[in-house]
Amino acid sequence: MSVMNVRRRRISGIAVTAATALGLGTLSACSGDSAAAGNTDKFDVVASFYPMQYLAEQIGGDHVNVTTLTEPGQEPHDLELSTKQTAELGEADAVLYLKSLQPAVDKAVAQSGVKTKIDATTLTKLEDHGSVEHDHGGEEHAEEEHSEEESGLDPHIWLDPVKYAEVAGGVAKAFEKADPDHAADYRKNAEALGKKLTGLDTAYKDGLKSTDTKVFFTNHAAFGYLAERYGLTQEAINGLDPESEPSPARIKQLQQEAKADGVTTVFYETLVSDKTAKTLAKDAGLKTDVLDPLEGITEKSKGEDYVAVMESNLKALEAALGAK
After folding, report:
1. Is it the case that residue 49 has pLDDT exceeding 80?
2. Which pTM value belongs to this model?
3. Residue 219 DSSP class
4. Rounded-to-integer distance, Cα 33 and Cα 84, Å
5. Helix, strand, or coil here: 97?
């Protein structure tokens, strides 16, 4: 399965984007260089970035030693692995990653002798969210915006609790096969995680069932799966590069759409600049708030782990969309 390679590419308008600034969870079983990635008395798992790390920790429980390759605040797509990281990766029992999100990780995994290589993109169905702009009945979008758009398979599967649960199930089976002595515990932990994710899915369905508007503005298009799952429409300021400057035509278009769709809020992220989002909000008379793409947990995160931040995201969406 091929996922779009999103490294160092800039696209105008709405396009699928890749995660930025991935990091470690504050509750990680083992963070960064605090322990070796391999040769411990546990099942040693190297995770590429936080969403993979969270799965490994939740499913592995006490039986795993989890390390992650992406430190808080690091830009994942330009991540360069140190010689030490590459060597430790080769000593791990398993590696859990999302292929094509981080080229350096893909290369290291391919060259490593790790017996169990778990690619999350193979554990669920990825979709193309390249064309996510919606029509306003006769309004013409800037032609240059469309001409520059590129599409590909959206890697942001972790922002859909249902797809994330599918990945979790696949990870559990891989753990069971690689470490059969603890298979029963991995199944039990995966079931517990599945219940958490099912509860999260139910909360989103109930919370977003009846709203004043279904359209939300984001800094970049990371929420395609979430929007599709819950009947929403995502409109992004930027495309693949969340720090790029949108064209004047794009800004004008968003201002018009805000009025047409009753948009109240422009969402930005904690790990990239909020300058463009706040400028758009000011010019259009809109509010601003955080919608976290959950690429890493930092001190600025509104929650200590995946579920907590997703719950914060739900509250932000409910407020912005006018949930009843």
Report:
1. yes
2. 0.82
3. E
4. 10
5. strand
